[in-house]
């Protein structure tokens, strides 16, 4: 279902044929450019001969990150509406597939509102860190080290969310969804957290209303996403277990929000 | 010089005759030869330019040595040029940043890090004047911000993106000028007041605007991602303004 290099082990394969969409297989261009630029003078030496092997290995685990950044303004605005007010979304929640090179792959985010992207989660995480810094400052507890600590706390929260989603997939016997998809879905919760922290900054009493509300919204969004998109992959359909796990995902959002939206310098509260 | 001085023999630990020992001495920088009326004071004076020296020295050797060392010293390029610091270019780039409405991307074609280094240093110095020791923090945050912007920009631009990390750091550093101005202004305003928040807002928007325009025009990203890039730059400069405000 996913356009990946498959489960071959070890042998270096040439990069796949470029897809007909206008961005092409830009992972070859942008990714190797990223890696080479980053390594500077040693890039050619280390990656020159083995770049195909490295790319095939990265593609096996990471499934072409460039796919997740094919966004534009229109997509970002509508996706934020879907994430923050999921009950207002009248359309369906499944992703659109297109046949590419004899294999079915999903359309990129520009063409499909339900496709995950990595731009919004990254920006939401950055906004969360900045807003947390502002909140700390307004309470007089700002220091750059505190902000570094909040950054790592947010990363840990993201990782916990990813592991929660991954564990529910594993417990149903299927873990085949690409890692970056799950990272993207987990990152969408930071948009809700940004709203909650923004409410805390502007008027402290609004926090007690906004936090449960956004928690609920993100819970609904995650449940609907996991139900439609990811459980398509699961072979066996066990109805009650399905529903318990979805309920668990929605309920687990509440402690996560409590932990991350309560901006303080301590580890727990 | 025709005068002959009574030079007592100098004994060196390595031995050797005093004549050879004198020859091994390097000449001191030229100073006007001083003549003492009292010949009992042992004083050796050199007249570097003159070919005729007192007979106890071997003058042509010294003259040759000094002329040889002098010409190689004069041939070296100036220090700033050797280090690659082009002060005129830094100044013209800085002046181009000051106008937020008209951006001249040609000046920023070749990136350099000496201008950003100066800006970050002055940012740190103004923070120091306010009592906060933030040099390491500023350096670390600029690195992380440059990496973040580099990843986001190249991923958004896809195949067309040709931003490299060096140019990214250079652009972020140059557009840090409004932040430096903010930290200078913040020294005179009460901390946590409304005034500093308003001024910080204006300067952050200035930084963001200049940085976005330079990025889009230099790295051929395309107009459809301008708002997305602008938000990333906005986040970065808000982060630095937090250092100043709080």
From TrEMBL, chain A:
Membrane topology label: Multi-pass membrane protein
Ranges of Pro residues composition bias in the record: 12-21
Positions of transmembrane segments: 118-140, 146-165, 205-223, 244-265
Localization of this protein: Endoplasmic reticulum membrane; Golgi apparatus membrane
A Gene Ontology BP annotation from the UniProt entry: endoplasmic reticulum to Golgi vesicle-mediated transport
UniProt GO cellular component terms: COPII-coated ER to Golgi transport vesicle; endoplasmic reticulum membrane; endoplasmic reticulum-Golgi intermediate compartment; Golgi membrane
UniProt KW keywords: Endoplasmic reticulum, Golgi apparatus, Membrane, Protein transport, Transmembrane, Transmembrane helix, Transport
Region feature (Disordered): 1-23
Keyword Transport belongs to the record: yes
Family in the record: Belongs to the YIF1 family.
Protein name: Protein YIF1B like
UniProtKB/TrEMBL annotation, chain B:
Membrane-protein topology: Multi-pass membrane protein
Primary subcellular site in the record, as a coarse category: Golgi
Pfam families: Yip1
Bilayer-crossing regions: 135-153, 165-188, 194-216, 228-245
Keywords: Membrane, Transmembrane, Transmembrane helix
InterPro entries the UniProt entry points to: Yip1/4-like (IPR045231), Yip1_dom (IPR006977)
Protein family (similarity comment): Belongs to the YIP1 family.
PANTHER family: GOLGI MEMBRANE PROTEIN YIP1 (PTHR21236), PROTEIN YIPF (PTHR21236:SF2)
Protein name (record): Protein YIP
Organism field: Actinidia chinensis var. chinensis (Chinese soft-hair kiwi)
């Amino acid at each position: 279902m996913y356009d990946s290099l498959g489960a071959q082990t070890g042998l270096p394969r040439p990069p796949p044929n470029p897809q007909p969409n206008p961005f092409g297989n830009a992972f070859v261009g942008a990714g190797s450019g990223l890696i080479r630029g980053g390594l500077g003078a040693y890039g050619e030496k280390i990656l020159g001969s083995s770049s195909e092997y490295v790319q095939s290995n990265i593609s096996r685990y990471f499934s072409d990150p460039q796919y997740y950044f094919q966004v534009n303004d229109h997509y970002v605005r509508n996706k934020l509406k879907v994430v923050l007010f999921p009950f207002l979304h009248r359309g369906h929640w499944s992703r659109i597939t297109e046949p590419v090179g004899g294999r079915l792959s999903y359309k990129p985010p520009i063409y499909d509102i339900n496709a995950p992207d990595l731009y919004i989660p990254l920006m939401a995480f950055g906004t969360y860190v900045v807003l947390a810094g502002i909140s700390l400052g307004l309470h007089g507890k700002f220091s750059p080290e505190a902000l570094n600590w909040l950054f790592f706390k947010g990363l840990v929260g993201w990782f916990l969310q990813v592991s929660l989603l991954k564990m529910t997939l594993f417990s149903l016997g299927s873990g085949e969804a690409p890692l970056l998809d799950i990272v993207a879905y987990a990152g969408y919760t930071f948009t809700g957290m940004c709203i909650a922290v923004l409410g805390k900054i502007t008027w402290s009493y609004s926090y007690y209303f906004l936090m449960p509300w956004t928690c609920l919204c993100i819970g609904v969004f995650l449940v609907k996403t996991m139900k439609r998109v990811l459980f398509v992959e699961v072979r066996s359909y066990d109805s009650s277990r399905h529903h318990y796990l979805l309920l668990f995902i929605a309920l687990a959002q509440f402690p996560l929000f409590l932990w991350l939206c309560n901006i303080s310098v301590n580890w727990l509260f | 010089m025709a005068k002959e001085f009574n030079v007592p023999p100098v004994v060196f630990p390595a031995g050797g005759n005093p004549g050879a020992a004198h020859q091994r001495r390097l000449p001191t920088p030229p100073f006007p030869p001083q003549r003492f009326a009292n010949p009992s004071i042992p004083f050796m004076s050199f007249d570097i330019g003159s070919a005729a020296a007192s007979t106890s020295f071997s003058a042509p050797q010294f003259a040759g040595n000094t002329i040889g060392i002098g010409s190689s010293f004069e041939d070296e390029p100036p220090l700033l040029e050797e280090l690659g610091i082009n002060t005129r270019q830094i100044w013209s780039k800085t002046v181009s940043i000051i106008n937020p409405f008209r951006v001249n991307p040609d000046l920023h074609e070749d990136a350099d890090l000496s201008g950003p280094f100066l800006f970050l240093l002055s940012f740190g110095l103004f923070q120091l004047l306010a009592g906060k020791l933030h040099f390491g923090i500023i350096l670390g945050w600029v690195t992380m911000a440059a990496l973040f912007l580099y990843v986001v920009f190249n991923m958004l631009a896809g195949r067309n993106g040709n931003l490299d990390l060096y140019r990214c750091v250079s652009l972020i550093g140059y557009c840090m000028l409004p932040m430096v101005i903010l930290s200078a202004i913040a020294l005179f305003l009460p901390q946590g007041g409304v005034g500093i928040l308003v001024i910080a807002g204006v300067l952050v928007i200035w930084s963001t605007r200049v940085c976005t325009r330079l990025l889009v025009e230099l790295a051929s990203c395309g107009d459809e991602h301008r708002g997305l890039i602008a938000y990333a730059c906005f986040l970065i400069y808000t982060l630095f303004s937090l250092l100043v405000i709080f």
